[in-house]
Amino acid sequence: MKVAGRTAIVTGGGGGIGGAIARLLVREGARVVVADLDADAAESLVRSITQDAPGSAVAVGADVSDPAQISGLIARAQDEFGPVDLYFANAGVVGPVGLGDDAGWNTAIDVNVNAHVRAAQLLVPGWLERGEGYFVSTASAAGLLTQIGSAAYAVTKHAAVGFAEWLSVTYGDNGIRVSCLCPMGVETKLLRAGAESGDALGAAATRAVTTAGAVLSPDEVATVVLEAVDAERFLILPHPEVLEMYRGKGADYDRWLGGMRRYQAALLQTAE
């Protein structure tokens, strides 16, 4: 799908990967609704990206854990620019360290998974009528491998990948395209959250991501994302080595689990 002239929504768009995607979409000629829990961050980004393209983007403060706010977000996009063509489900949370508590799990499930499901529930019927639409899910390499440190993050990112797969299988022959972004380390606020948690397991989580491969800039990731959308490719891997890791996991699960336990032990020793 070519993005020029299309209407897109980017959640978690106030900065990081979402902000970089929104900026690149506008540069490529799309009309964009930038949504973020931090309304000021969304407004600031829109002011920046519309300097050379007035009227090409609007900001909306939105909590995607709230179904009503997702609905309002889609309505705003339709009012401003017309029917939504692309939805970038990018908002995400790290979740609690370790096993966590119910409150932390509920937030992670709502933001990392349910927000994707609820957006699709609202958008897919219209896309089926029009014969096209594009859903881009930001998951994580943790959704293909796992995440040392946070059970909630690892589980919900696996679920995000699974939901994106289901959308593609179910509606891919009806004009609905789906891509799933699974990066490792990207220089965003979430990257350092574990190290700032004060928990050894959290620190190990950050070190696992920052030492497993290159830490990319959000702009680098956004470029890969838009290239994948143009090619209508499902799996988006800004870190190509993730594919080899994933193949190794599938080839010998027990060996992989043992290796991850040893890796975690080494990270914890370093953190301590």
TrEMBL record:
Entry keyword ATP-binding: no
GO molecular function: oxidoreductase activity
Annotated keywords: Oxidoreductase
The protein's Enzyme Commission number: 1.-.-.-
Keyword Oxidoreductase: yes
Pfam families listed in its UniProt record: adh_short
Top enzyme category: oxidoreductase
PROSITE patterns the record matches: ADH_SHORT
Family (UniProt): Belongs to the short-chain dehydrogenases/reductases (SDR) family.
Protein name: SDR family oxidoreductase
